[in-house]
Each structure stands twice: as structure tokens, then as C-alpha cells.
UniProtKB/TrEMBL annotation:
InterPro entries per UniProt: LrgA/CidA
Species in which this protein is naturally found: Ornithinibacillus caprae
Primary location recorded for the protein, binned into one broad class: membrane
Lineage, opening ranks: Bacteria, Bacillati, Bacillota, Bacilli, Bacillales
Full protein name: CidA/LrgA family protein
Any one cellular-component term (Gene Ontology): plasma membrane
Membrane topology qualifier: Multi-pass membrane protein
Alphabetical UniProt keywords: Cell membrane, Membrane, Transmembrane, Transmembrane helix
Key word Oxidoreductase present: no
Length: 130
């Protein structure tokens, strides 16, 4: 019974440290954005820095961040609720431009599907050719 509690405490520690690490790199990216690279979003800078850290430390760091990332992903739909409420609040704008918005979403989704399938086809053919 003690073993199960120990593993639970370790998982909680890994989850909390993962959340702290993710938020820390986000804040570091925002700081770099404020003082150096104002044209690149801070969250993107933080993500690139965290990815570089993953490349350096490998699997050990992934194990620590995995719990926090899974927790963020689990509750991610809650962050989209305010956006949906905002769209519903401006229904007059949606009634005027709704068809345009819907058309743009369809066209952009279709273009993304085409571009990704073309790119993947090229990568698969490069891989199979040698």
C-alpha cells in the first residue's frame, strides 16, 4: 500500500513541476518578446525554447513535463468557452458576415488538407526512394 501512495506522490510532483516548467517557459518567451523580439509572439518563443530543452535533455525531461501537458490538454476545451460566448454575443456581426466566415473556414480547411497531403506524399516518396 505504501508503494502505491509513493507513486501517486511522484506523479503529483511530476505534474506540478511540468506545469511550472511550461508556465515558466511561457513567461520567459513573453519576456523575450517584450524586450527583444516584439514581432514574434511570446508563447511561440517559449515553445521553441522548451523544444530546444527537450532536444538537449531528451526523454528525462519529457517524463517530467508529460503530466502537466496532459492536464492542460484535458481542460483545454474550457478555454474555448469564452470564444464561443463572444461569437454568440455579437450575433448581428455573425448574421452579416456569417456566410463569408463559413466560406473562408471551408476554403482554408480544404487548402490545408491539400497542402499537407501534397507535402506528406513528397516526404513518403523521398523516404521510400532513399
Amino acid at each position: 500500500m505504501r508503494k502505491a501512495k509513493f507513486f501517486n506522490e511522484v506523479n503529483i510532483l511530476k505534474t506540478v513541476s511540468g506545469i511550472i516548467l511550461i508556465i515558466g517557459f511561457y513567461l520567459l518567451g513573453e519576456t523575450i518578446n517584450t524586450y527583444l523580439l516584439s514581432w514574434v509572439p511570446g508563447s511561440i518563443i517559449g515553445m521553441i525554447l522548451l523544444f530546444g530543452l527537450f532536444l538537449v535533455f531528451g526523454e528525462k525531461l519529457v517524463d517530467w513535463v508529460k503530466g502537466g501537458a496532459q492536464l492542460f490538454i484535458k481542460y483545454l476545451p474550457l478555454f474555448f468557452v469564452p470564444v464561443t460566448v463572444g461569437i454568440i454575443q455579437y450575433d448581428n456581426l455573425l448574421s452579416v458576415f456569417g456566410v463569408l466566415f463559413f466560406s473562408l473556414m471551408l476554403v482554408s480547411s480544404f487548402l490545408i488538407i491539400l497542402l499537407v497531403s501534397y507535402w506528406m506524399d513528397r516526404k513518403v516518396s523521398e523516404f521510400s526512394c532513399g
